[in-house]
Specification:
The complex is a heterodimer.
Chain A (H helix, E strand, L loop, with lengths): L6 H19 L10 H10 L1 H35 L1 H16 L2 H12 L4 H26 L3 H9 L4 H39 L7 H10 L3 H30 L1
Helix pairs in contact in A: 2-10, 3-4, 3-6, 3-8, 3-9, 3-10, 5-6, 5-8, 6-8, 8-9, 8-10, 9-10
Chain B lengths: L6 E12 L2 E12 L3 E5 L6 H9 L6 E6 L9 E3 L11 H11 L4 H14 L15 H13 L5 E5 L7 H18 L2 E5 L3 H7 L2 E5 L6 E6 L7 H4 L2 H20 L1
Parallel strand pairs in B: 3-7, 3-8, 5-6, 6-7
Antiparallel strand pairs in B: 1-2, 1-4, 8-9
Helix pairs in contact in B: 2-3, 2-4, 3-4, 4-5, 6-8
The chains are: A mainly alpha, B alpha/beta.
Chain lengths: 248, 252
């Protein structure tokens, strides 16, 4: 069994203790920087409000991730099959990737309609998360071992056999690395989109963050941030576990 | 006896071109069932190209190549320079690949893969992944894969070049065993004169590009055992092959 590395846990506890000690010793106003104990208290007190909101944000992020995986893989497959299409559309995909999501958000909100914030948030999160999936899946599909490729040609493999037995297993580790990046980005995409959409209609965590900010409840803001970080870590941990399983 | 056996691999005036470059031929060649023909020649002379053409992986510009499948699989068994194994699959699944691609149902193909693995001395490694196997063992898996669908001919392209002397001899013996037991037509490419003499019934020495057959050296039909390696017959055949290769060097 793998032993637990206590170094980051100790480092974390030390930083929290330092934070707690300094804010108390320097009497930093709680509205500027609350001590960890106050953040913990806010987490307990506001838990009934924050946890459902975290659930909404996580649900949106997972949906965006699922759409990104499907869409990214599908487009990668099409690009791998039709290189002309990749050459023609690849640069435009890069343009979309390079454009800050905050700048695209108002347009998407107009197009989906202000009454459909969930749809707008999903679209924006997918725009952010789809590219790592697309590029890694495409790299994976192109990484087929030429020797194995020759072997499949020798045995006259059909395109379905080739895809299922050669391309997909070759691309899987690349795809998973892309999905790991996309998982974090889908969460970032949802949070940014919720901010930009500026509506509480979805009831997501960033709306609670904005709400707490407007009320100068800094400890609640930190509690919401803590939950967001926890969600990101959870996603990363699950995907790392899958990656490890695939390697063994 | 071999002269009465059916021809399994043949090339008639076969030429291969890469663009404007003449890569091979014209070349005439035939390998009979139960016969091992070894191709020797300088790098780039087209030995691998000829093998690829016979395997159906390379089109000929003119002439004809044929791998006759009478009594065996329509596809020749091929072992490339690298084992080319699927890292994500077990040795058993790697060996069973040709059967899976030709639609053989799972139980039957795994049973045949087991038999093929046993044949190459890897019966206890069926569930091992390639990364856990040595270079020699990986090449044995590749050989088992080439034999699993009962081909009538076997094409080997410098398969054991990266393997140590003892391991290589053991693998050469496996090829000879497969040839004898299954009456296979074997076409083997190597750079090693000693390996060529040990394996071959006939050695064909190719010229520099575009490869043509410069000489044919018959190797006496005597048992291939350690004593053969130190016999006058071995030394004579090896000397004859080296003379032709040296003459090419001088001419170049």
């Amino acid at each position: 069994m793998k032993s637990i590395d206590f170094a980051p846990i100790l480092a974390g506890l030390l930083m929290l203790a330092l934070w707690e000690g300094l804010t108390r010793f320097l009497q930093v106003p709680s509205v500027i920087l609350p001590p960890p104990s106050a953040i913990g208290a806010a987490l307990v007190e506001r838990g009934p409000l924050l946890l459902p909101a975290a659930g909404v944000t996580m649900g949106l992020a997972l949906t965006a991730l699922a759409i990104s995986i499907g869409l990214g893989t599908l487009v990668a497959l099409i690009f791998a099959r039709i290189p002309l299409l990749e050459r023609s559309l690849g640069p435009y995909a890069l343009v979309l990737q390079a454009t800050p999501i905050v700048a695209i958000a108002p347009l998407v909100i107009i197009w989906t309609g202000i009454e459909n914030p969930r749809r707008a948030i999903l679209i924006l999160a997918v725009i952010v998360a789809v590219f790592p999936v697309l590029t890694s899946a495409l790299a994976g599909l192109k990484a087929v071992d030429p020797g194995l490729d020759r072997l499949f040609r020798l045995h006259k493999a059909s395109s379905t056999q080739r895809f299922l037995r050669l391309e997909l297993p070759t691309a899987a580790p690349f795809l998973l690395a892309g999905i790991k990046t996309a998982a974090g980005l889908s969460l970032v995409g949802v949070v940014v989109a919720e901010f930009v959409a500026g509506t509480g209609a979805t009831g997501g965590l960033s709306w609670r963050l904005v709400e707490a900010g407007n009320r100068l409840e800094t400890a609640t803001m930190f509690a919401a941030l803590f939950l967001l970080a926890l969600m990101g870590l959870a996603l990363h941990a699950v995907l790392s576990l899958i990656e490890r399983q695939m390697r063994t | 006896m071999q002269s009465e056996s059916p021809i399994r691999l043949s090339a008639q005036q076969a030429c291969v071109r890469f663009g404007r470059l003449d890569a091979l031929g014209p070349i005439d060649l035939s390998v009979r069932a139960g016969e091992c023909v070894v191709l020797l020649g300088p790098s780039g002379c087209g030995k691998s190209t000829l093998l690829a053409a016979l395997a159906g992986l390379q089109a000929v510009a003119s002439g004809k190549v044929q791998a006759d499948a009478t009594g065996g699989s329509a596809i020749p068994g091929v072992v490339f320079q690298e084992p080319n194994l699927m890292n994500w699959a077990t040795a058993e699944d790697n060996v069973a690949l040709p059967l899976a691609l030709s639609g053989v149902e799972k139980d039957a193909r795994l049973s045949r893969a087991q038999t093929a693995l046993k044949r190459v001395g890897l019966a206890n490694f069926s569930s091992a992944y390639p990364r856990t196997l040595s270079g020699g063992m990986r090449m044995r898996v590749a050989l088992a894969r080439a034999l699993v669908n009962d081909p009538s001919s076997l094409l080997l392209d410098e398969p054991f070049a990266a393997i140590d002397e003892l391991g290589r001899r053991a693998l050469d013996d496996l090829v000879l065993e497969a040839k004898r037991d299954h009456h296979l037509a074997v076409l083997f490419v190597t750079h090693s004169v000693d390996e060529a003499v040990y394996l071959a019934d006939r050695i064909l020495v190719l010229s520099p590009r575009p490869g043509r057959i410069m000489a044919e050296i018959a190797v006496p039909n005597v048992p291939r055992d350690p004593a053969f390696l130190t016999s006058p017959a071995f030394a004579d055949a090896a000397a004859a092959a080296r003379r032709v290769l040296s003459a090419q060097l001088v001419a170049a």
